[in-house]
């Protein structure tokens, strides 16, 4: 059965690591839906957040093989963890005089930000879940998307709650 997995991979911050990790996916003819990579709080390590879709058995095999790579420090299947997920998109949307206010209404509803304005376009930043980004794109398509870029999903596990906090319904 096909499924989507979000995989967080902490690796040594070394040249060639990204190619080796991506090679595990391409070697099995799996497409990576999104890939976000950056340094962690420790500059000697990087964190890769990979979103991939495919057969459950093959994805499980990839998880096991990721753990065997020399430069891999830790692999976490975020799909089974309680986590916070976010993505960033920058979207340049065409505007004319009468559509600017209508577009601003959509921007406000989605809590997006206008970063740049010209007579012909607005460049907008929107952050949130994949579903929120897709919803925003659906709403602004009618204005005419001139250009767009997305970061891909990033994720962190939620903080663990103490038993006392859980009983009160609090977060850490």
Concise summary:
With 172 residues, the chain is of the alpha+beta class. It is built from five helices and nine strands; from the N terminus they run βαββαββαββαββα.
Structure characterization notes:
The protein is an alpha+beta fold and 172 residues long. Helices cover 29% and strands 41% of the residues. Strands 5, 6, 7, 8 and 9 form a 5-stranded antiparallel beta sheet that branches. A 4-stranded antiparallel beta sheet has the order 2-3-1-4, with helices on one face. Strand 6 and strand 7 form a beta hairpin.
Tell me the count of domains: 2
Mean pLDDT: 90
Give the CATH superfamily of the largest domain. Answer: ACT domain
Task: List the quaternary state of the chains.
Answer: single chain
Helix content: 25-40%
CATH C-level category of the largest domain: Alpha Beta
């Amino acid at each position: 059965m096909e499924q989507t997995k979000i995989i967080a991979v902490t690796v040594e911050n070394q040249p060639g690591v990204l190619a080796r990790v991506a090679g595990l996916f391409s070697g099995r003819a799996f497409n990576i839906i999104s890939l976000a990579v950056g340094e962690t709080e420790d500059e000697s390590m990087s964190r890769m957040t990979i979103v991939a879709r495919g057969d459950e058995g093959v994805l499980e095999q990839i998880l096991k093989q990721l753990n065997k790579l020399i430069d891999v420090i830790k692999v976490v299947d975020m799909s089974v963890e309680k986590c916070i997920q976010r993505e960033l998109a920058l979207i340049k949307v065409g505007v004319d005089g009468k559509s600017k206010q209508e577009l601003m209404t959509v921007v406000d509803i989605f809590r997006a930000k206008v970063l740049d304005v010209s007579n012909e376009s607005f460049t907008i930043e929107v952050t949130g879940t994949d579903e929120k980004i897709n919803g925003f794109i659906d709403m602004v398509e009618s204005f005419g998307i001139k250009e767009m870029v997305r970061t891909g999903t990033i994720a962190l596990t939620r903080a663990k709650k103490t038993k006392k906090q859980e009983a009160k319904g609090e977060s850490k």
